[in-house]
Design brief:
Strand content: 15-25%
CATH class of the largest domain: Mainly Beta
Radius of gyration: 30 Å
Strand order of the largest sheet: 6-8-9-10-20-16-15-12-13
Largest sheet: 9 strands, antiparallel
Helix content: 25-40%
CATH topology of the largest domain: Beta-galactosidase, Chain A, domain 5
CATH architecture of the largest domain: Distorted Sandwich
Structural class: alpha+beta
Distance between the termini: 22 Å
Number of domains: 2
Shape: elongated
Number of strands: 20
């Protein structure tokens, strides 16, 4: 029968797509987490002696080329990298960070509420780290074309104290750092950490001495991609991003930055390096003609993405204030869009975004009611089913009528034998007489498929659902069912649903349909349990609806 053949084609395409998608996710590169205990011990040993060895061997970063040459003229009394650096420990309700007094930059940052692996509380996500396996640090500083000196990210600052912790009732932590040169130029760099926020304010207070100071401030991210599990079929984007009102969302892959440096003058905007679930971004102070740039250090396979402000100046005895923001955050969609326009675009669902975003909105709405992502998926499934109830009803009516005429179709096959043309003509005449749409049975799958695939990418791309538990044995909705109970239930529900459908006349198609529940159960055994939960609930609702409609039509006949 024609509709059965179409269903087979749709199913085949569906299986191929899911296998391709699963291949991408299974073999995506996963950063190797640094051992928190080991990192802490290493930093403690290095604290008052010298800057971390990894900083020396990996990278000290670069200073924007336009003024790097001028800095060679500074006097030995203020030569950088001669004074040992120390670490400042800052802990809030969300992050645990270490600031290097060399440059006043954050060299390590741990997200306290995110685990590297589900149910393993010993390893938190290290978003910033000097570890060779997952090197990523943020750098910022000042540069000047004058004969005087400005503190780059290699300059040594003086700190008031080395430990800060957000106390009960305290809403923010301010970490002031001080630098002064031989000519009397004073710079205070203040890092502000706030409660319930992944945004760090990085402010400069530049006080000129007896002569006018002119220079720029810059911010950059130094990153070395992890070498483990690299795979060219990886779907999730990992690389650089530039954004402003004109260019909107512009991706810059690491391989592209290796081939050609970025050099763009943009008004306002921001830059970021993102991976599957997390984002590190600099949002510079609003200005015209910010210079966005990149550098690739081939020997170390290190990428630097940065932005430098246009020329700034401060008169003698006056103070210039520069305010920038650093975002070190999980990709929480609704939080990112509050911080800065365009940041929410880093959550990318691909070509299915137009369906995935409303799905996530509805999921998030149900989650606010239930407090559980599993129940939110169930309520979403019911909502989708109700939205397409009439369409499904029409389809199931058509399939029920086809069940009634199945014996007559079998008689036609016996009558016409191998004469397919005559057989098809007779079947079309019968369908027309009985008011049956032979393609009607395909509609439920056609409607479900884009929703199902969009939900697949929502489950994989939404950090809100990462490692989310449901009930009983389901402790991670983005991981597979550990006991394969949901895939087995899905296979059983598919088998029951097939019994309600008209049986194919072709023996080969009959065998294929008989195997499908087992094939799908096996395939879905390795898919996110949240996705299988959606499919099981959807099948149960479909079986209930189809059973009622089929019985009504058969009783009426």
């Amino acid at each position: 029968m024609g509709n059965q053949r179409v269903l087979l084609y749709i199913t085949l395409f569906f299986i191929i797509y899911l296998i391709w998608a699963k291949w991408q996710v299974t073999y995506e590169p996963k950063p190797l987490a640094a051992n928190p205990a080991a990192s802490s011990q290493t930093l403690k040993q290095q604290g008052t002696a010298q800057s971390p060895q990894s900083d020396k061997t990996t990278s000290a970063g670069i200073i924007p080329q336009a003024v790097a040459v001028k800095e060679k003229q500074i006097t030995p009394a203020v030569t950088e990298n001669k004074t040992p650096a120390t670490y400042i420990h800052v802990k809030t309700d969300l992050i645990d960070a270490k600031i290097d007094t060399r440059g006043g930059d954050i060299k390590q940052l741990v997200l306290l509420h995110y685990l590297e692996k589900a149910n393993d509380k010993s390893k938190k996500v290290h978003l910033l780290s000097t570890s060779a396996n997952q090197f990523q640090v943020v750098q910022s500083g000042l540069v000047s074309a004058q004969k005087g000196f400005s503190p780059s990210h290699n300059a040594i600052y003086k700190a008031e104290k080395l430990n800060y912790q957000l106390a009960n009732g305290q809403n923010e932590i301010k970490v002031p750092l001080y630098w002064q040169n031989n000519q009397g130029l004073k710079v205070k760099k203040v890092l502000i950490f706030k409660r319930d926020s992944y945004v760090v304010n990085v402010n400069y207070y530049v006080t000129a001495s007896n002569e006018k100071w002119t220079g720029s401030d810059y911010m950059q991210i130094a990153h070395i991609p992890p070498t483990a599990h690299k795979n060219k079929f990886d779907r999730s984007y990992k690389g650089g991003v530039l954004y402003n009102d004109k260019i909107k969302y512009e991706k810059h892959k690491f391989k592209d930055m290796a081939e050609k440096n970025i050099k763009e003058n943009l008004n306002n905007g921001w830059l970021a390096i993102i991976d599957h679930y997390f984002i590190t971004a600099w949002i510079p102070q609003k200005a015209k003609n910010n210079l966005y740039y990149s550098r690739y250090l081939a020997k170390k396979d290190e990428y630097i993405l940065g932005v430098r402000s246009p020329a700034l100046s401060v008169q003698p005895g006056k103070t210039l204030v520069i305010k920038n923001r650093l975002v070190v955050s999980p990709k929480l969609q609704y939080e990112l869009e509050k911080i800065e326009p365009g940041l929410d675009l880093t959550v990318d669902y691909g070509i299915l975004t137009i369906i995935a975003k409303p799905l996530f909105w509805l999921l998030n709405f149900f989650h606010t009611i239930t407090g559980n992502w599993g129940w939110a998926i169930i309520l979403l499934t019911i909502s989708v089913k109700l939205a397409f109830y009439k369409l499904s009803e029409m389809s199931y009516r058509s399939m029920a009528r086809m069940r009634l005429v199945a014996p007559r179709i079998k008689q036609l096959k016996e009558r016409f034998g191998d004469d397919r043309q005559a057989m098809s003509k007779a079947m079309m005449g019968m369908y027309k007489k009985e008011k049956i749409n032979p393609m009607g049975g395909c509609l439920p799958i056609l409607v479900q498929m884009p929703v199902f695939l969009a939900l697949y990418w929502v489950l994989l791309g939404s950090v809100e659902m990462r490692h989310a538990p449901f009930i009983f044995w389901i402790t991670n909705l983005t991981g597979k069912d550990p006991y394969y109970i949901l895939p087995i239930l899905m296979g059983i529900s598919m088998f029951i649903q097939q019994k309600l459908n008209p049986a194919p006349v072709d023996p080969i198609q009959q065998k294929i349909f008989q195997v499908m529940p087992f094939a799908f159960s096996f395939m879905f055994a390795f898919f996110p349990s949240g996705l299988v939960l959606y499919w099981v609930v959807n099948n149960i609702l479909s079986i209930s609806q189809q059973y009622v409609i089929t019985r009504r039509i058969e009783n009426a006949k």
